[in-house]
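TICKET #2291
ISSUE: user wants both folds in one file
ATTACHMENT 1:
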Amino acid sequence: MSLKQGYAQEMPFKNEGFDVVISSLFFHHLTKQEKLETLHETYRVLKPGGRIHIADWGKPSSIIQRILFYIVQILDGFETTQDSVNDILPTLLEESGFSSIEGGRSIPTMLGTITLIQASKSE
């Protein structure tokens, strides 16, 4: 086992080397452009038929969840977190070449709504 350090937009891995990529509470820290670059890079390192699974802040499931999410936005910045409120990850996944995009499962939390999204790389 080894540890490789790198940036999400420039992963130090070969093309088509992974079956699955999992991301948890990461994308809301990125600008829209960085999100898109990271998804393109993820697509590159996934094998055909590989899947990405994302758990991150998503569109608030109620007005209470929206109000609670302001705490996250104040702490993490509105520029990067507003994309979560606008639910743009499915669109960015599609723009990056992913297919079979499934999402919508929402989990209310003390700070907002976590949304689970998965998509696959075409075979």
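ATTACHMENT 2:
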Amino acid sequence: MRKLFSLMLVLALVGSLMIGCGSTDEPDNMTPETTAAPETSAPEVQGDYEDGIYFATEPGFSDSGWKGTVTVTVEGGNIVDVDWNAANTSAGKDKKTASADGDYGMVAKGNAQAEWHEQAELAEAYLIENQSFDGINYVDEDGHTDTIAGVSIHVNDFEALVETAMAQGPVGTGIYKDGTFSAEADAFSDSGWKDTVSFTVINGNIVAANWNAIGETSEKDKKTASIDGDYGMVAKGNASAEWHEQAMEIENYLISVQDLGEIDTIASVSISFDGFLALAEEALELR
């Protein structure tokens, strides 16, 4: 009797173990579910733009001395980065740098609500968020908008630059390092002038160039003396154009070709510009 009771007890224990093992719906080789699902990010929606770097500049300098530029970066068909900037006719600091350094002074000089670079950044953020200017409302012909809070500058200039850049297609980045670069000749020439050059580079492109000279005896720089009629190449030397006009031809030609090696002769220029080229090679830095 005692043996029978022991046998029944053993059978009961084995049966309970088999029932316990069969209580799960998962096969033994499956990994148990975790209590928290892994974090996943939604896939980015593919945009309509061709990937690459887009770049455009305004055709010339405004009356205020600035020429607008824009650089747009597209990845996955979407605009992911924008740089709205400008270069000055003096080829000094770019507009964002001048504004950040306090040289532009929109708040102090014009009672603006924010400095130019701060407002430009708000406009850039709007474009990145909306991927176009379709929803923007302009309140006047000057390009002011009430769509972007904190922005009182002419946003239509920004929109026009972006449209130009996107229409041209991706162009990549130029060969030069970004920044402001300058150089000066070591000594005065026999004619009493010492050449100077300065350049503004944005997105690897020369967007402003300024060739000038310091006078050994003149208080005016060479461009100013030429503009004021003191240098007198036309009247005194029967030149086809004054020195400052020819210097600007050379500057603009370099901006158009972006390559010092391509500047050999310019039909409309009769002055020697070897000094300009030598100083430009010294000042500009390649990427």
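RESOLUTION: both attachments delivered.
EXTRA DETAIL ON ATTACHMENT 2: The chain is about 35% helix and 20% strand.
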